[in-house]
Design goal:
seven-stranded mixed sheet, 11 strands, four-stranded antiparallel sheet
Length: about 120
Amino acid sequence: QVQLVESGGGLVQPGGSLRLSCAASGSIFRLYHTGWYRQAPGKQREMVVLITPGGSTNYADSVQGRFTISRDNAKNTVYLQMNSLKPEDTAVYYCNARRISATNTYWGRGTQVTVSS
């Protein structure tokens, strides 16, 4: 079973940057889709970006051009670089992993990102 641990959240001013990290308990990138979701207060959880084992990405329109997902295979860690942050980016950010051709889906416990002046 996959364990996911997020880190890197915090308080940042509008226009600033943060990099989130998601450390996985095992080697997952070959067999799992991974990505980031977020949930703002009073709103449903939404997809931020997904990446396939082959490296194809799918970004939400709201973050396109500002956020970038990347992976470090040796560390089994996925990152989310967030630039030009806006107050509406404020949310709890969750790491996600879903095994190809299986029902197994795993979530981290989330890390809070607050964008405020």
